[in-house]
Amino acid sequence: MNHKKFMREALAEAQKGDLPYGAVIVKDDEIVIRGYNTAQTDSDVSAHGEINALRAFTQKYGYSLDALEGYTLYTTCEPCPMCAAACVWAGVSKVVFGASTEQLINLGTKQIDIPCKIVAEKSFQNIEVIGGVLADECLELFKNK
């Protein structure tokens, strides 16, 4: 899969949101769902880009613990523990992120410092986690906010 191509799509989604968190869900080299952060707009603390993409997916295709088996979630920033856990419950096979939680903390953004990889490792799902894809471009979104 072309990780940079799909991360660029997540970056485009991030530009639409309240905060620069964007996500796309991909299967067989095709984007099936897009999402971005609407927490402020919706007055919903859980409306992160990843959550919105997962919600849109399950509303369209249904829900089960393996609903997203074989799918990859691309997101501009490392999923927070809530979003990482949602990936577990949805059965996402792979998470690819841009900027890490540590990088965001170093920029001064408020984060819960629990890596996505740790949540995935402690779960009952087998989720591959890949970080650092276009991280500099993802971080730029936060420098401009």
Characterization of the model:
The protein is of the alpha/beta class. Helices cover about 40% and strands about 20% of the residues. It has 7 helices and 5 strands. Strands 2-1-3-4-5 form a 5-stranded mixed beta sheet, with helices on both faces. β3, α4 and β4 (about 95-100) form a beta-alpha-beta unit. The longest helix is centred in the middle third of the chain and has 13 residues, at about 50-60.
Main traits of this protein?
alpha/beta, five-stranded mixed sheet, 7 helices, single chain, globular, 145 residues
Strand order across the largest sheet = 2-1-3-4-5
Q: Give the DSSP E fraction (strand runs of 2 or more residues).
A: 15-25%
Our Rg estimate from Cα atoms comes to 14 Å
Listing every helix as H and every strand as E from the N terminus to the C terminus, the arrangement reads HEEHHEHEHHEH
Provide the structure class.
alpha/beta
Please give the number of β-strands. Answer: 5
So what's the oligomer here? single chain
Helix content: 40-55%
Number of continuous helical runs: 7
End-to-end C-alpha gap: 30 Å
Low-confidence stretches: none
For the largest beta-sheet, the strand count, sense and barrel status come to: 5 strands, mixed
**Overall geometry:** globular
Average per-residue pLDDT, rounded, comes to 95
